[in-house]
């Protein structure tokens, strides 16, 4: 291991110890290159999962994304998705943060090829957006649902949802759709 890599590994370990989410993300790839045994990787994943629940905002989701990719390489993607679920559960009492967490959970299902589960989560998110009267977010969620319906081969439903989204965007005067 060269000196530069040794320094990066030490930086990662220090960042993990002080729970510095940004620095952990910055040095994660270098650290992963040095792991040789699966049990070491699984031990690291547990630490990263705990840290992801302590991180705030985008950093939590960036770390969850990295964790999910590592689990995907281990053919255990559901364990990776579980991190997103835990973050959502953590924010259940705060409607705005909970909505954000649901979006990232649905996006993760979408990213990892599970459009049916993405739609289920988007439906929960849609309910919250309608309750809040947030038409723009409702339109965006409908569009995401349409893409996933198309992915499942349900073109009629995809078109129906996209039409609803377009109508909402037009009502809002959003030039991006017209």
Automatic annotation (TrEMBL):
PROSITE patterns recorded: TPR (PS50005)
Protein source organism: Thermococcus barophilus
Transmembrane feature ranges: none
Annotated coiled-coil segments of the chain: 18-58
Protein name per Swiss-Prot or TrEMBL: Uncharacterized protein
UniProt repeat feature TPR, residue ranges: 99-132
Protein keywords: Coiled coil, TPR repeat
KW Ribosomal protein (keyword) present: no
């Amino acid at each position: 291991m060269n000196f530069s890599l040794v320094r990066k590994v030490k930086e990662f370990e220090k960042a993990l110890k002080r729970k510095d989410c940004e620095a952990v993300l910055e040095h994660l790839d270098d650290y992963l290159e040095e792991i040789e045994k699966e049990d070491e990787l699984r031990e690291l994943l547990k630490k990263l999962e705990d840290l992801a629940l302590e991180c705030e905002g985008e950093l939590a989701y960036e770390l969850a994304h990295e964790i999910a990719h590592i689990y995907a390489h281990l053919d255990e993607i559901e364990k990776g998705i579980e991190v997103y679920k835990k973050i959502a559960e953590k924010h259940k009492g705060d409607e705005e943060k909970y909505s954000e967490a649901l979006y990232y959970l649905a996006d993760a299902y979408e990213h990892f090829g599970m459009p049916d589960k993405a739609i289920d989560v988007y439906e929960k998110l849609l309910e919250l957006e309608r309750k809040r009267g947030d038409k723009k977010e409702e339109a965006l969620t409908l569009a995401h649902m349409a893409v996933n319906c198309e992915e499942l081969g349900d073109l009629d439903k995809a078109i129906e949802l996209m039409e609803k989204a377009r109508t909402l965007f037009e009502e809002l005067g959003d030039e991006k759709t017209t």
